[in-house]
Amino acid sequence: MVQPDPFEPRFARRASGLLRDFNLAGVISASDVHVARQFGRLTGEDDEAVLLAVALAVRGPRLGHVHVDLQRIRETAAVDTEEPVDLDTLAWPEPNGWVAAVAASPLVAAEEAPEVVRPLRLTGAWLYLDRYWAEEVQVARALQAMAAREAAGIDPRLLEDGLDRVFPDQSDHDQRRAAAAAVRRPFAVVAGGPGTGKTTTVA
How far apart, in whole angstroms, are the C-alpha atoms of residue 63 and residue 55? Predict the structure, then answer.
């Protein structure tokens, strides 16, 4: 591997082992490495594979993901570099052993123990920063509670009259059903591919 420019800001100069290799390849950034190493120092965690998992979990939210899937990250990882990188040449940990090592780390709490507060949370093979796991659980509970309630005060006849007025064409059957569901429930999701009328239905 080509030695990096020591003044290049995307490289963590003091990184070693897996953190260094994955940083040089562009899979994780210097900031991901620094956070993982600091967590390791604070807890005495020195397993390279665990610290790599931590760095990948730190990286996730920056790329729009709330967790890293340790079983699939090898297939889905991207790099922060314009140079082509063969990610198969990296020493990816074996997924099952990796998940087991992460689960045993003092940095990580299990999903089944919500009362335990640690920097990271493992659910199955998904590793979260604990804050994002807690927020995801909170949102899921709120959505489930909303979805379980029926909307109050709906006049069925008035609703049907309104639907007849807004959707007079029989070809709008799916849009009509979606609009009716949205009125009857405090929470509804309108889904469909491009051009299927989602925006029109919502309007």
Answer: 13
* Mean pLDDT over each residue of the chain, to the nearest integer: 89
| Parallel/antiparallel/unpaired status of strands 108-110 and 120-123 | parallel
Q: Is residue 87 a contact partner of residue 27, using CB atoms and an 8 Å limit?
A: yes
pLDDT at residue 83, rounded to an integer = 72
Indicate yes or no: pTM above 0.90: no
Q: How far apart are CA 73 and CA 102, in angstroms?
A: 14
Q: Is 44 left (phi over 0), alpha (psi -120 to 50) or beta?
A: left
pLDDT (0 to 100) of residue 3: 59
SS3 79: coil
Four-point Cα dihedral 47, 1, 83, 73, nearest 10 = -20
Per the structure block, which two tokens stand in for 142?
A: 């709120």
Question: 102 versus 10: which is more confidently predicted?
Answer: 102
The alpha carbon of 28 is separated from its chain's Cα centroid by a whole number of angstroms, namely 16
